[in-house]
Structure prediction request, 387 residues.
Amino acid sequence: MTKKVFYEDTKIVDFTGTVVECTADDKKKGYWVVLDQTAFFPEEGGQSADKGTLGGQEVLDVQIKNDIISHLVKVPFEGGSTIEGHVDYERRFDFMQQHSGEHIISGLLHTHYGFTNVGFHLSEREVTLDMDGVISLENLREIEAMANRIIWQNLPVYATFPSKENLATMQYRSKIEIEGDVRIVEIPGVDTCACCAPHVASTGEIGLLKVLKVQSHRGGVRITIACGGRALKDYSSKIDICDEVGTKLSVPEERILTALEKVQNDFATLKYTANELTGQLLAEQVKSLPAPSECANALLFVALNNNLAIRNTVNTLTESYPGYCGIFAGNEETGYTYIIGSKEKDCREMAAILREKLSAKGGGTAPMIQGNVTATKENIKNIFNAL
Ligand SMILES: [Zn+2]
Prediction:
């Protein structure tokens, strides 16, 4: 059994340990080192392992099995030798802020809604907790406010190993039958929970707790939170985004939404106008086509690419022309996007010909195909004339 220095004091990050065992792991291309004691918290209970160095080497992973903690390193250490370890405290403290914050919010959801935490994940990237009940974001905001009041009260966070007798009389979350001593983390009056991880000494160290997201998950909800430094970072990045959007819209932050709605309305109006004008332009070009009695196919080249207007015109053309009705938008240099329709012909056959003769891309159904092609007007015309 490895002596866990992080249970004595979470702030001890420099320590020395004696190598009890060092085993090669070919798959991981490294060595698992067991020490008599360690300050490294292993991957456990949904939380990623601590990072840092052992004997100056980077610790790549830390695992626990049967109360024995193993550290993965690249180079072996001799059994019986004494080595120095160093845990990355900035990362440890960040994890403690997140984990203690999670206990507060899970505790409050348990007390006020009777929910049980059924999943927890804490990594460098995110903190999520899964609850077995459904709660709205509005109600969660009330819980968030309560959690922050608890943080500002700077309540102590106790971690103890109660005797079997005391434990039997205690009310706590995360009650599962486990071998050996059960570690209880308690925030008086707020939450009592069985937990193996390092925690802050008092709630004030969490600083701030922010709910970032709540989504449906397996009949309950998955809540994403950020605490302390992470919440601050998230706040900063959101201010940067607001600033950037405000600058682009030329309005102060509080008018971003109104300005955005105006942009959306203006865009819809412009899009409608563009469709109408392109439609009129296409109608003018249609007048220059030979009559259906002279030529069964209709072929037009246009500079503007307006999918809706082009599609509508193709549909109109198929009412009078029995052959293939195609509109190619673009130019010979950068290529054309095309829509071809027909009431009587199978357009998929046309798609096959365009693919074969002009290496065109695209496809669709018998009444209509669309795609793109880089070819000369002459070559496209020749294909239409030959059909
Ligand atoms: Zn915990």
